[in-house]
Input
Amino acid sequence: MFKDADMKDDTPHTLWHTLDPREVLERLKSTDQGLDPEEAQTRIESLGANTLGQDVEPSRIKILLDQVKNPLIYILFAAVTVTALLGHFKDSAVILGVIVINSAIGFWQELRAEQSVRALRQLVKAKAWVVRGGREFQIESAELVPGDLVLLTSGDRVPADLRLLATTELKIEEAALTGESVPADKDPAVLEDPDLPPADRTNMAFMSTIVVAGRGRGVVTGTGLSTLMGQIAEDVRSVRMVKTPLQERFDRFARRLGLTILGLALLVFVLGFVLGLEPFDLFMTAVAMAVAIIPEGLPVVVTITMAIGVSRMARRNAVVRKLHAVETLGSTTVICTDKTGTLTRNEMTVRALYSMAKYFDVSGSGYELHGSFVERETEKRAEILPGSDMEMALRIGLLCTESSIEWREERHIVKGDPTEAALIVVAQKAGLRSEEEGAAWPTVAIIPFESQRGYMASLHKRDGRNIVFLKGGPEKLLDICAMERSQVECRHDEVLAAAEQLAREGLRVLALGWKELPPGIAFDKLTEELAYGVTFAGLAAIIDPPRSEAAQAVQGCAEAGIRTVMITGDHVVTAKAIAAQIGIGGQEPQALTGRDIEIMGDEDLEKQVEAISVFARVSPRHKLRIAQAYMARGEIVAMTGDGVNDAPALKAAHIGVSMGINGTDVAKEASDMVLVDDNFASIFHAVEEGRIVFENIRKVTLYLLGGGVGILLTILGTMVLGMPLPLNATQIIWLNFVTSALQDMSLAFERGEPGILDQPPRRPNEGILTSALLRRIVLVGLTLSAGTVLLFHRALALGIDLEHARTLALTSLVSFQFFQLFNCRSLRRSALAMNHVHNPLLFGAVSLAWLAQLSALYVPQVSWLMRTVPLQPQELALCLGLGLSVVVVVELDKLILRRRAERRHTPNQAFRKN
Output
């Protein structure tokens, strides 16, 4: 059994690089077949997870204490002290009780928000390919243990400290650890110096570094805090939650609003004093009014609303890694998307071949092994003759690969690239078998595909000869092909015309070739030998059918005012054909190629992109320029990517979107959002959820500020009219508690309204409070205050005592806010046309608050504290009827807005345009 003690004699960062690979495996009690799965489980139970320690959650005591670290609470504590000193113990008890209850609710809300934000980190977990028991598995990196065999490919983030056993052109960027800006070349050879610094340990790969090129295989020597990165992490354990720009704006907004309201409270005190009102009552009223009007819970509700949106996006396969993406999604104007796997199904099938100057159609779909070859010109079944260029082309597709496919009980399991899987399948349709061909043409070395090179190559031995197989894009591969060496001579322009013809049919085209090398060629000289003289064997044309939901999503984006742009490495004709099928750019989409972009300056590209819907034959570095060109035009850009070289474009765009299935670790790390299913439709759904989040924040703001303005105008109105204060300080604080404790948060759970995607994208600098929203807040405030002042004045005129009149005023304001909550469920739609059952939390919040208000009226102990009196049924009905008037007023305002929008032929835009 492998125990932790086995590691303690050998310091992992000092000795592993000095040992022979065989000795490393022996010391780690592992083999070249990897660990047995049961042994791996035993080790993880013994040594723990491969993590850099758990994030320390903020103390609940600290969160609770934060609830009272608030200027408003300080004011309330001052009020408690003053009232107690003056013998008003009833007021002291009520204010203290409200502080306790509000702090408890605030604690619960903030704890929920904190947990929701921190849970985002768990939505995208790092993965690693390992060999266990001779089989390859993809597991979470946290499950790695010392002795595991790990496979590295370009774009991976190294999941643990590894002693490399085999490498192929492996380069790892280690700047985070060593400070070296140039990627390090890796080689498994033994290094004898035990004191080498990490930067010189070329046979080691360290946790959290990045594979930028090549392939590698290594054994885990250290995990978690036992890694080199773990030692650094021990010194950096504090966690700081970074606020989004929206949260920062809300914090500033709340501070400014707070200062404004404190000024108004002072004004109320001064005005009341001039009018001869009791100074103590004025002081308490001013304090209570400030507390009631300031929306102190708004920043927390904003965080909760965003966290809810993130959770909903995750359920729709879009995992947000950074909260700021939630608010930016609602402003997105251009989505630059990859084609393969995102707009298409990524279920490749070879539909046609071109070899020996002839076209051949291939039947069968997907990864089924049944199918035949038909010569297109004669429409006769074709036989694949041994030794022909056609057979060689199929063999190259079968063996020049890093992928594999297994068939199990009529199911297929593809490991690797679906395009390579399609080439394996078509070769098997022709009678070539992987095991037999692999034995006859054993693979000696592989040169992985890199975008700069444009092809992949594999070196094989055959009867003592060195044969290299190559596959890649037609333009790049044909540049190094010697056409006259193939069995049927044809010119470059003929093959390129054939490739274009196949691409015009919506097929992705790959060129296949081979070259015999001189004996004893050194591996590091392979790429030089492949710069010329490659024999052309044929073209393989592959179809990747578009996703049906992608076409619907593209149409939805267009209706939402969002342009969809396709960026692909495929042939321009293929790209345009697929784009037309999906609806990108119409039936004749405008296109630019990578070569066009190369010769353009940035200003020219910026002018061109407005009309372009398809970018074809582009490299990852072109994607960066495309993103920057759109951004220079003022567009808000979402950019998709999956490769290591896509990282700059993903970081540069406003929203970087990486692929969850085929995306590299580097791409995911650079992105703001990860598509779990690699599906374009998931981006569209995320945009919808982003807009819902922003709308819900506006609804909460409208509800809180509308009620606050109503309280302020009510107090000022009665003072100006020479009436007594309509509410005492205790009642104002109670009103704030009963109408804002839970109702504001219930609006965060609102679903999207119909037509939310009919609006144009929100301007990124657009504030929460538009002119129309401000008008609504003032309108609601005037309605609340006018109704309450009228009722209060009427009650006093009828000779009702002050305590009874104040009870009527308090109950009417509570009723107003309850009905206003239903108004706020939509900023445009009629509350009468909505299904209010869709938000059960809202009904629960209203029910609890209404029960609390009834207790203040009819439970003697509570009414004694509140200084209220029981109301007669007809009086209660009067308050409810008065509260209902706010629905009528707001419905008229919504009707006016809808009519204006209809006249402008821009539905649902009134809240943005006004």
